[in-house]
Amino acid sequence: MVFPSMLFYAFIAVVSIQITYYLSFLFSFSIKRAETRLKKHIPISIIICAKNESENLKKNIPSILSQAYSNFEIVLVNDSSYDDTLETMKSFDAENTNIKLVDVKSNEAFWGNKKYALTLGIKASKHDFLVFTDADCSPNSDQWLAQISSHFSNENSIVLGYGAYSKKKFSILNKLIRFETVMTALQYFSYTKMGIPYMGVGRNMAYRKELFFNNNGFNNHMSIKSGDDDLFINEVANASNTSICFTNDSFTISEPKTSFKAWILQKRRHISTAKFYKLKHQYLLGLFYITNLLFWILGSSLLIIGFSWPWIVALISLRFIIQWLCFGFTAKKFKESDLILFMPILELFLITTQLSIFIANLISKPKHWK
């Protein structure tokens, strides 16, 4: 009975860490209400870097052009596309005076590096306040730009927004993608609220050009293919210069991957940057993931062998109740209430998928961004 007892005490420790993590880090944001701020329209440059995104540009640029905002430009960066992305950009440029086109030619030293293309786009922008989104993203309302820009101030030079994914009926993959997106947002918004920001998503974020160049842009991680959003924020964000914006009007909506293979490849690129985060962020995020994994392994093992099963059921129930509260409040804020019921199943799927991705990344490195 010594080994089962050891597993039992380890499980108690794991559940205690999980509950402490949820209550200390995540719960305060989950119950926080979104703030709607209305300020004078400051000059904004929207940066959109696209590689082989002609159809997405045709679909989404009109909704960006129609923003209820008085002073903005759109910098369209063509990153060596081989479809008709450049022609699509030129057509928008010809019809709109507030569009600027940057055509990035193929460069052997920076081939497949989105950071190089983004840097050229940032240099070409004429305003100090920059808002970033992707070609496959559409603003959730015509107030998107007004909401995001309203969080800039003399102190706040970074604004982190929420990039949602559109819903697809009868799709397990779609629910998994949206669940992972909500959990990621819950973490990076919570950390920022606590004064330890560690990442943002390039689908919806903003920062000052001055901040970018004062910190040498992407120079410290230019050789890393991914991380134009999270690695830069991890490097320059702090408790005093970062704000969060999560009103419904401020969301962007993207089309999610439609196959597990495509999604896994995307996540491999994203996860590959985590090892370059600051050590305190690696420790906290690693602790959360490891205890998540151990919760399922130890809890299942103890239930199978029937060791102190009333206590195991009680501990599992307590942890799930607290998690459901944090995730549930957050999911409602992000208009993802349909995920709440499926949370345990989706969490198990996500944890096992992430484990397989970690192993795959140890064997081979993910390739360039497109």
Q: What percent of residues are in strands? A: 5-15%
Biggest sheet strand order reads 3-2-1-4-8-6-9
Average pLDDT:
93
CATH superfamily of the largest domain: Spore Coat Polysaccharide Biosynthesis Protein SpsA, Chain A
Please give the radius of gyration in angstroms.
22 Å
How many helical elements?
Answer: 12
Textual characterization of the structure:
By secondary structure, the protein is α/β, with parallel strands linked by helices. The protein has two domains: 2-30 and 280-363, no CATH class; 44-259, Spore Coat Polysaccharide Biosynthesis Protein SpsA, Chain A (Alpha-Beta Complex), CATH 3.90.550. Helices cover 51% and strands 12% of the residues. The protein has twelve helices and ten strands. The chain has helices spanning 2-30, 54-65, 85-95, 114-124, 144-149, 172-193, 209-214, 230-236, 260-271, 279-305, 309-333, 343-363, and strands at residues 44-50, 72-79, 99-104, 129-134, 137-139, 158-160, 163-165, 205-208, 242-244, 252-254. The strands form two sheets. The protein has a seven-stranded mixed sheet, sandwiched between helices. A three-stranded mixed sheet has the order 5-10-7. β1 (44-50), α2 (54-65) and β2 (72-79) form a beta-alpha-beta unit. α1 (2-30) runs parallel beside α11 (309-333) and α2 (54-65) packs parallel to α3 (85-95). The termini are far apart. 40% of the residues are buried.
